[in-house]
Q: What sequence folds into this?
C-alpha cells in the first residue's frame, strides 16, 4: 500500500467515488456551521460586527495559498514521475484556487472599507494576493490555450515551478516596497494565541470546512477530467475502427 | 555561439525596427504621459521613475514574440535544437541578442527620456544603473514566456499575461533604486537585490525555457 497506487486512474476513481458521498456533506456542514456559528459570536470590542467576515476571509486566504502549494507538488510529481492523475489534479485545482483568492480579495475589500476606510490599499499582503491571482489566471489561460494534453501538462508544470519562485519573490519584494496596513497573522503556532476561544473555534471549523470544500471540488473536477480523457480515448478508438 | 548571436543581431537590424521599435514605443509613451498627467514639474517628477520603468518593461514585452516565433515558423528552431549547441545555450544567446537590441538602447537613451519627464539630474545615474542591471532579467524572463507560448497561433497576449507577473520583483526594485536615487536615500539594498534577480534569472531561467522549448518542439 503506497500513495503511488492512486496514480492508477481506476484506483483513484474507485477511492474518490467512495469518499465523495461523505466528503461533500461534511464539507458543506462544516462550512455552513462554521460561518453561521461565527456570525453568532459576540462583536469584537474594536472592530464591531465587521469581524465576522473573518470566517470567510481567513479560510479562503489559507486555501488560496495551500492550493497553489498543492498544484506545485502535483506538477512536480507529474514532471518527475509522469502520473497523469497528478497533472489532471493540478489542472483541476487551479480554478478552485483562483476563486479562493478572489473570495479572499473581495471579502478583504468589504472588510477593509469600514475598518481602514478604503476598499483597496497597496498593502504588501493585498498586493501579493493580487499577484497570486494573476499567476492563477496565467496558469489557467495556458492550460486552456494548448490543445495537446501532455504538452499542456508539461508546460503548465514548468510555469508552476517558475511561477512559485517568483510568487514567493514578489511576496517579499512588495514588503520592501510598501509598509503594511494589514494586521499580522491572527493564528500562529510560534507566537501563541492572540484570539479568544469564542472566536477561535468557529474559525477552526470554518477553516476545516473550506479545506474539505476545496478538496471535494478538486476531486470532483479531477474525476471529470479523467472521464473526459476516457471519452476522448473512446472516440479516438471509434474513429480508427 | 558567436555565429548565432551575430545572426540574431543581423536579423534584428535588417528586418527593420529591431533597434528602433522599442525606442520608438518608449518615446511615444514618454510623450503621452505628460498629456495624461499634466505638464508641471511637481506632478511629473515623482512619477517619472515608475513611468520610465513601466515603459521599459512594455517596450521589452513588445518585441518578445520575435525571440522564437520567426525561427519556429521557418524551421530553424528545429535545426538549432538538433545542433551540438545545447538548447539552454541557444536560449541564453537569444535572450542576450534580445537584450542587445531592445534593453541596451533603452539603457543608453533613458537619460533623454528622463529629462522629458523632469526626472531630477541626481537620479539619472541611478536610472541608468537600475535599467542596466534590471533589463537583462526582463529579456531572460521574456525568453521563458516566449518559449512557453512558441507553438501557439496567437500566443502574444497570453505571453504578456504569463510574463508580466514574473516582472513584478524586477520592476519594484528597479523603480525603487531610481526613486531613492532621486531622494538621495541609500540605494545599496535594492541594487544588490536587483542584481541578484538578474544573475539568478540568467543562470537558471534558460534551463526552464529550454525545457519548455523541448516540449513545444516535440
A:
Amino acid at each position: 500500500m503506497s500513495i503511488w497506487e492512486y496514480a492508477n486512474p481506476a484506483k483513484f476513481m474507485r477511492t474518490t467515488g467512495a469518499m465523495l458521498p461523505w466528503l461533500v456533506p461534511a464539507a458543506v456542514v462544516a462550512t455552513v456551521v462554521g460561518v453561521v456559528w461565527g456570525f453568532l459570536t459576540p462583536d469584537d470590542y474594536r472592530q464591531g460586527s465587521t469581524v465576522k467576515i473573518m470566517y470567510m476571509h481567513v479560510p479562503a486566504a489559507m486555501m488560496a495559498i495551500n492550493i497553489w502549494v498543492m498544484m506545485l507538488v502535483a506538477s512536480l510529481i507529474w514532471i518527475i514521475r509522469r502520473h497523469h492523475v497528478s497533472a489532471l489534479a493540478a489542472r483541476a485545482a487551479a480554478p478552485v484556487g483562483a476563486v479562493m483568492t478572489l473570495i479572499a480579495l473581495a471579502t478583504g475589500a468589504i472588510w477593509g472599507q469600514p475598518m481602514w476606510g478604503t476598499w483597496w490599499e497597496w498593502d504588501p499582503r493585498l498586493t501579493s494576493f493580487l499577484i497570486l491571482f494573476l499567476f492563477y489566471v496565467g496558469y489557467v489561460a495556458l492550460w486552456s490555450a494548448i490543445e495537446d494534453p501532455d504538452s499542456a501538462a508539461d508546460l503548465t508544470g514548468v510555469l508552476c515551478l517558475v511561477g512559485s519562485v517568483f510568487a514567493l519573490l514578489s511576496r517579499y519584494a512588495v514588503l520592501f516596497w510598501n509598509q503594511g496596513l494589514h494586521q499580522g497573522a491572527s493564528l500562529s503556532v510560534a507566537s501563541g494565541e492572540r484570539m479568544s476561544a469564542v472566536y477561535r473555534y468557529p474559525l477552526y471549523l470554518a477553516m476545516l470546512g473550506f479545506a474539505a470544500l476545496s478538496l471535494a471540488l478538486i476531486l470532483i473536477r479531477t474525476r471529470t477530467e479523467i472521464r473526459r480523457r476516457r471519452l476522448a480515448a473512446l472516440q479516438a478508438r471509434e474513429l480508427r475502427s | 555561439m558567436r555565429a548565432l548571436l551575430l545572426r540574431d543581431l543581423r536579423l534584428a537590424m535588417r528586418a527593420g525596427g529591431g533597434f528602433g521599435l522599442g525606442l520608438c514605443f518608449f518615446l511615444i509613451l514618454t510623450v503621452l504621459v505628460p498629456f495624461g498627467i499634466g505638464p508641471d514639474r511637481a506632478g511629473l517628477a515623482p512619477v517619472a521613475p515608475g513611468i520610465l520603468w513601466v515603459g521599459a518593461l512594455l517596450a521589452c514585452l513588445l518585441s518578445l514574440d520575435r525571440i522564437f516565433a520567426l525561427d519556429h515558423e521557418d524551421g530553424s528552431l528545429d535545426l538549432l535544437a538538433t545542433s551540438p549547441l545545447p538548447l539552454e545555450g541557444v536560449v541564453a544567446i537569444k535572450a542576450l541578442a534580445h537584450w542587445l537590441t531592445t534593453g541596451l538602447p533603452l539603457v543608453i537613451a533613458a537619460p533623454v527620456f528622463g529629462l522629458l519627464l523632469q526626472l531630477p539630474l541626481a537620479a539619472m545615474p541611478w536610472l541608468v544603473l537600475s535599467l542596466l542591471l534590471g533589463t537583462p532579467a526582463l529579456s531572460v524572463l521574456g525568453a521563458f514566456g516566449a518559449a512557453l507560448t512558441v507553438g501557439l497561433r496567437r500566443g502574444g497576449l497570453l505571453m504578456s499575461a504569463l510574463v508580466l507577473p514574473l516582472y513584478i520583483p524586477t520592476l519594484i526594485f528597479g523603480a525603487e533604486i531610481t526613486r531613492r536615487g532621486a531622494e538621495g536615500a541609500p540605494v545599496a539594498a535594492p541594487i544588490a537585490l536587483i542584481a541578484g534577480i538578474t544573475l539568478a534569472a540568467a543562470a537558471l531561467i534558460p534551463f526552464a525555457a529550454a525545457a519548455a522549448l523541448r516540449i513545444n518542439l516535440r
About this structure: Chain A has one domain: 9-176+197-240. Chain A touches chain B at residues 131, 134-135, 137-138, 141-142, 145-146, 151, 154-155, 158-159, 161-163, 166-167, 169-170, 173-174, 176-177 (CB under 8 Å). The helical segments of chain A are 9-40, 54-81, 84-116, 124-145, 149-177, 197-240. Chain A has six helices and no strands.
